[in-house]
Amino acid sequence: MTPEALIDIFREALSVIVTIVSMIIVPGLVVGLVVAVFQAATSINEQTLSFLPRLLTTLFALMILGHLLVQTMMEFFLQMVNLIPQVVG
Fold it and tell me: Where is the chain membrane-spanning (predicted)?
């Protein structure tokens, strides 16, 4: 196995990880920013006010995008399994 092939596998793995994590985290970050602006505008300093909407948004994103996330992970896994003969031999 050449170092270039290993770097390509590693690059693709990082790409899959960043894609999956961003689909989960970005909606929560956007909602957290909106709630923080609302809290700053109204001078409300309640910590649970920012936590609950972010939690619900993250759970909602997992419900909606769960199929796509699992499909992406399965495609990457199957691609890695198909590369085993090339890596070993």
Answer: 12-39, 51-70
Domain range for residue 56?
A: 30-89
Contact 12, 58 (CB under 8 A): no
- Over the stretch 9-32, which tens digit does the pLDDT of each residue have? 999 999 999 999 999 999 999 999
CA–CA dist 45, 81 (Å, integer): 51
- Per the domain annotation, does 76 fall within a domain? yes
- Tell me if the pTM is above 0.90: no
- DSSP annotation of 44 reads -
> What is the spatial distance between Cα 34 and Cα 47, in angstroms, rounded to a whole number?
14
